[in-house]
Amino acid sequence: MKKVVITVLGQDRPGIIARISKGLFHQDCNIENVSQTILQSEFSGIFIVSVPEDLSPDGLRDRLEKELEGLDIQVYIKASAAGDMPNISGSGEPFVITTKGPDRKGLVATITEVIARYEANVTNMQAVFKGGDDPDRNIMIYEVTIPADTDMKALDAELRQKATALGLEISIQHRNIFSAINRI
């Protein structure tokens, strides 16, 4: 079996995942990983799927589009390069960086630029921007993998300097500490 990456986008409604998984099952495919979310009213899903060798991406896309007919959902399929590339997100230590403060253009670009400069990889990111200047209503959470040889003092200092310039509070914690502190 070969692997493909399937991206599905469209207006959220009940039954999208049921239809996708039914279409995949009927084509003898196996879902290996899924990341799905709803942003405002938009559905977004990414699936890593094992497919039979004789099933073409176009054939699979046609089948999924048929299953999703009438829902105005977009389906994109590409061959997975997972076997050809190193697992970047797995090399290093997991950290959680959170920022809190007023919403403005450039927040994500500024923080992620610093993260990238230190060869750290953003593995998950969430934003809750409710607008306005109430800092308690605008929170960003960046899950990152930081290489073991990173100068953590320099990274911390640069992130704090950028956060201050943007009027943000920032927290940088190892994921284990973040999880322990935020356990419900």
From TrEMBL:
<dbReference type="InterPro" id="IPR002912">
    <property type="entry name" value="ACT_dom"/>
</dbReference>
<dbReference type="Pfam" id="PF13740">
    <property type="entry name" value="ACT_6"/>
</dbReference>
<protein>
    <recommendedName>
        <fullName>ACT domain-containing protein</fullName>
    </recommendedName>
</protein>
<dbReference type="InterPro" id="IPR045865">
    <property type="entry name" value="ACT-like_dom_sf"/>
</dbReference>
<feature type="domain" description="ACT">
    <location>
        <begin position="96"/>
        <end position="173"/>
    </location>
</feature>
<feature type="domain" description="ACT">
    <location>
        <begin position="5"/>
        <end position="82"/>
    </location>
</feature>
<dbReference type="InterPro" id="IPR050990">
    <property type="entry name" value="UPF0237/GcvR_regulator"/>
</dbReference>
